[in-house]
């Protein structure tokens, strides 16, 4: 009987751990490579734009050939429900506004989180959808 109770207890603990999913804060932590930006009129495919998230700070980087950074900035982010809010320095918004990858009009953007798994991140703003893969 004790053996059955022990097996039952281990089974319950295992099921409890298996059913616990990582929080969104944990899932978004790390470096993400932008694969595509789908705009209402066109799609931009890329492999040279990276967003990195860690404990409320994010980095936004675009690579040129030879792994040189064409542009880079840091900012703050927060997860609020089904949204991610990112803020960059106001001095960076002009560069972000003119980038074919960012399209930021203001220093703060609220994106709707569509998908967030250990390997995939998809967020959108208005009619534009950004798709990322986890970069290791």
Could you characterize what this model shows?
With 136 residues, the chain is α+β, with helices and mostly antiparallel strands. Helix content is 21%, strand content 50%. The protein is built from three helices and nine strands, in the order H-H-E-E-E-E-E-E-H-E-E-E. Strands 1-3-4-5-6-7-8-9 form an eight-stranded antiparallel β-barrel. The longest helix is centred in the N-terminal third of the chain and has 18 residues, at 2-19. The chain is globular, with a radius of gyration of 19 Å.
Low-confidence stretches: 1-21
**What is the overall shape?**
globular
Strand arrangement, major sheet? 1-3-4-5-6-7-8-9
Output the radius of gyration: 19 Å
Provide the residue-averaged pLDDT. Answer: 81
Helical content (DSSP H or I, runs of 4+): 10-25%
- Class by SSE composition: alpha+beta
Percentage of β-strand residues: over 45%
Order of helices and strands: HHEEEEEEHEEE
- End-to-end span in angstroms? 48 Å
Assembly classification: single chain
Q: Please report the total strand number as a whole number.
A: 9
Main sheet summary: 8 strands, antiparallel, barrel
Number of helices: 3
